[in-house]
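Note to self: the last two entries modelled the partners one at a time, which told us nothing about the interface. This time every component goes in together.
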Amino acid sequence: MNDVLLTIILIVIKLGLVLGTVLSLAAYMVLAERKVLARMQMRHGPNRVGPFGLLQPLADLIKLLCKEDLIPERADRWVFMLAPAISVGTALLAFAVIPFGAPLQIFGRTIELVICDLNIGLLYLFALSSLAVYGVALGGWASQSKFALLGGLRAMAQMISYELALGLAIVPVVMASKSFSLTAIVASQQSLPNALRHPLAFLIFVIAIMAESKRTPFDMPEAENELVAGYHTEYSGMRFGMFFVGEYVNLIVLGSMLTVLFLGGWHGPFLPSVGWFLIKILAVAFFFIWVRGTVPRLRYDQLMAFGWKILVPLGLLNILVTAVWLLWRG
Amino acid sequence: MSFYRYLAEGLFFGFIVCIFAGAFISLRARQLMNSVLGLAISLLGVAGLFYHLGSPFLALMELLINIGVVCVVIAFGIMVGPKPDQAAEKRPPPKRNRMLAAGACLAASALLLWTVLNTPWNPAIARIGDFTIRHLGESLLHQFCLPFELISILLLVAIIGALIIARIGRYGARE
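The predicted structure of the combined assembly is written out below.
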């Protein structure tokens, strides 16, 4: 019984640490995005709340919590209320399988720095990302608004299409490391990160996660100039806030996926492993913000054609080449 | 280790409740989208059962394929399609449809019941109990190779069929 209790306490501590870090990181990601974008557009960005505007996320949270929670009259109430929760929930659940550091030795016990080392962790991540479509689609459908419906439809089509390219990009990594477990994939990159071993897969993966996160240049689902705000047009208060948090948590999840699968996970010299992991995630996030500040939005047909006619065939070809290479090497 | 056993039993009944709740929502829903949601909830319970039976791989595949793709595509179809008049949906379905639906349900239940009653159920110890990816892969590509390939052909035919229907839909109106 003692052992059971200890295991449960350990899991609770890990959960608390990961949830706390991820949620505060997501809040400050919003601030970082506003600051960096502002600098790129020769502005200052938020700098009034606290020193350097550092308390801005807190102010935003209080504002969102105090706002009236509106539900459109003809909306499907239950589905309308459920959608933001699905959006945040699936994003947060993904962290269960992501290894964020090298195993620790405390009091003679080895503590793995991952909440649950699932041997098919990669499939788990995929299953969750396919469930994340529901949050967006249901939010758009239940609002009973043309803008929201169109945004939801676009998001759905885009996420389904690019999930395929995402999956195809990962197959070479799985073939080379011979495992679906994220811990094993990280371990296989001790000498050389996968980004250098599978450069094409890395490229496809980066483009696909950008489309998955529905950010510029792939932000058709929430294109402001035509759809107001897309699938979350009708949401207000904290429900809107939940979509927002979900989006940024998702950004961190995708950054972690990229780090774990292609950038060598927590491996790195000098610094502690958790530090390296955080640095890599933040670098990926900065790259995303940079792209948002630089690249214009694609047209919808360009987006679909690019996904289906270029990324998917390239991904298939890449798998074939990797298979031949693995066979030849023996 | 009784704690884990209680936990497992609790989860098992949770999944059962999930399956029935999903089915109930699906049946009682006035709007098609809610029926699809019910189906998704029900399938979530089925995925949980697979997990409970010791195959997380099958559970995740259920999530990935049935909930993450099949239900999403149905939902997409509903969102694209014309919106039925809400008043019309509240009308009871015609008598013939009811009879047909009841007949289909009865036939399916009878078939399932017949299978359940005629299957020799071995206790857990007597089964192989190996549902790992390796075992699944070997049985799919050795023992059950033919059905596996037939399913692929079925999917291919379905895709080609969908493409043909889509083309007729696009160009047919002009003729």
